[in-house]
Amino acid sequence: MKLDNQINNISPKKSLGQNFLIDLNIAQKTVHLLEVVPDDIILEIGPGKGVLTHYLSELTNDLYAVEIDRRLSDILNMQYPKKYYPNLNILNQDFLELDFSHITNSQNLAIIGNIPYYLTSSILFKLFENSRYVRTAVIMVQKEVANRLLSSAGTRTYGILPIALSFYGKISFSFNVPAYCFFPQPKVNSKVIAINFYKQSDTINNSQEILNMVKLTFQQRRKKVSNALETYLHSCGIDPKYFYDYLLTNSNYQVLDYLDKRPENLSRDDYIILFNSIQSIALNSK
């Protein structure tokens, strides 16, 4: 009872974007969506007061719960003593600084978390950059962000995030979570998304380099690709006029068509073709 009072007396920190999930049905549904297999190592982002940890600790898999708030990590260590929960490891650190290779050396991480919404992009890119370790991820995000991740080329919400996601995995399932399921209630609704990551053998070569090009292009998303690409072309040692003339001379009308569009009108595969074309020209011009 004393421990319960300590947990209840911990107030959320606005600076850490803390909104504690209080709906146990949503917690169970979220954990169930993770679909853990025997070889998985579970990695929980920001366990908070342990509403997901409670159900995760019932599994036999090794579990790492990464909590940046010392108040909460101390409480969780008291709530889940190592003597009774030998598979549970509470890590008091910033998830964004976590070295996944210290936990596993294969693609068997099952990641779950009710994440701070202001860190959504940073956390997603952390997962993408470490995709060689991640098998699946179930995370709670702002509903608007989830809808962006689910969007396709040519739509208003399409941008860097859905393109980046398409290089590393795809959303297999999602469900809505209303604001009243949290304390304090956020001003936005939420959505739980399940991402299945591609096997390393199925990932695309040069994905990081292509995404760097995409990011530079979307910095000027209201311009045509021909203009938005200039910074990237210069970084490759290619004069934009030479690039355009080369495409004309070689009748590469597909890429010429891309240049006449805006960044949000190109799909992942379009960007791959565009990248390969630029790299080919860069190689030939040396």
Keywords:
single chain; 286 residues; alpha/beta; Rossmann fold; Helicase, Ruva Protein, domain 3; 2 domains; seven-stranded mixed β-sheet; two-stranded antiparallel sheet; 17% strand; elongated
Walk me through what this model shows.
The protein is built from 13 helices and nine strands. The chain has 286 residues and is of the alpha/beta class. The chain has two domains: 201 residues, Vaccinia Virus protein VP39 (Rossmann fold, 3-Layer(aba) Sandwich), CATH 3.40.50; 78 residues, Orthogonal Bundle (Helicase, Ruva Protein, domain 3). The strands form two sheets. It has a seven-stranded mixed β-sheet with strand order 4-3-2-5-6-9-7. Helix 5 runs parallel beside helix 7 and helix 7 packs antiparallel against helix 8. It is elongated and about 75 Å long.
Structure summarized in a few sentences:
The chain is an alpha/beta fold. The chain has 13 helices and 9 strands.
Low-confidence stretches: none
Total E-strand runs: 9
CATH topology of the largest domain: Rossmann fold
| Average residue-wise pLDDT | 93
Distance between the termini: 72 Å
Percentage of β-strand residues:
15-25%
**Percentage of helical residues?**
40-55%
Reading side by side through the largest sheet, how are the strands ordered?
A: 4-3-2-5-6-9-7
Number of helices: 13
**What is the SS-derived class?**
alpha/beta
Count of domain modules: 2
CATH architecture of the largest domain: 3-Layer(aba) Sandwich
Radius of gyration: 22 Å
Q: What's the order of the H and E elements?
A: HEHEHEHEEHEHHEEEHHHHHH
Q: Could you give me the name of the CATH homologous superfamily of the largest domain? A: Vaccinia Virus protein VP39
Cα shape: elongated
